[in-house]
TrEMBL record:
Keyword annotations from UniProtKB, A to Z: Endonuclease, Hydrolase, Nuclease
Matching Pfam families: HNH (PF01844)
Taxonomic classification: Bacteria, Pseudomonadati, Campylobacterota, Epsilonproteobacteria, Campylobacterales
Domain HNH: 123-162
Signal peptide: none
Protein name: HNH endonuclease
GO molecular function: endonuclease activity; nucleic acid binding; zinc ion binding
């Protein structure tokens, strides 16, 4: 009788480990597809079978998600100027409106759309494919103090998550609204 009870509990533990392994596999697949420029390391969770026996499955999944978000926010990325645009894509007034000036040029929407098309909608930091130009954000590779202007080579395309992380002053990423956090918690 005792052996049967032990067998039932052993199966439950194996089932829990399998669910975590499946969750990690799904998570890795999602991250490689949605954020290909960032190499997430989930190996510490794959090798924690003994620790998992004492923890709740939901708690463990939540800890994994927190680690993913931490790695996403800690990803080191440097702003660099982009490849130059073809001259035939430029328009009258492009050069004048590209000068370093804190005032946003009147043709900024056109510049944003051109950068979006040139980068094929991919975030420069994480590689996420942005579906619509309206959901894309633009930052300057070189600030105005560094003589950076609104020329196309100086405009960097970012997704909402990366824009929030790169423009937020505090190092506490837990306070930030990140769409990534919502998407990952939806996987629970």
């Amino acid at each position: 009788m005792i052996d049967k009870i032990k067998g039932i509990f052993a199966k439950k533990e194996e089932e829990k480990l399998d669910k975590i392994t499946i969750f990690i596999g799904l998570l890795e697949s999602y991250l490689k597809r949605e954020h290909p420029n960032i190499a997430f390391d989930l190996s510490t969770f794959k090798n924690r079978k003994e620790e998992l026996k004492e923890k709740n499955e939901q708690v463990e999944k939540t800890l994994i998600i927190r680690e993913v978000i931490k790695q996403f926010s800690d990803f080191v990325w440097e702003k660099t100027t982009q490849k130059s645009a073809k001259k035939e894509l430029l328009w009258d007034g492009y050069g004048i409106n590209s000068q370093p000036n804190k005032k946003v040029p009147i043709d900024f929407a056109r510049r944003k759309e051109l950068v979006f098309l040139k980068e094929e909608g991919a975030c420069n930091r994480c590689g996420h494919k942005i579906e619509k130009v309206e959901r894309a954000y633009i930052v300057l590779a070189q600030s105005f103090e560094q003589n950076g202007g609104y020329n196309l080579e100086n405009l960097i395309l970012l997704c909402q998550n990366c824009y929030t992380l790169t423009t937020y002053e505090s190092s506490n990423f837990k306070e930030l609204y990140l769409r990534l956090r919502e998407d990952l918690y939806d996987m629970l």
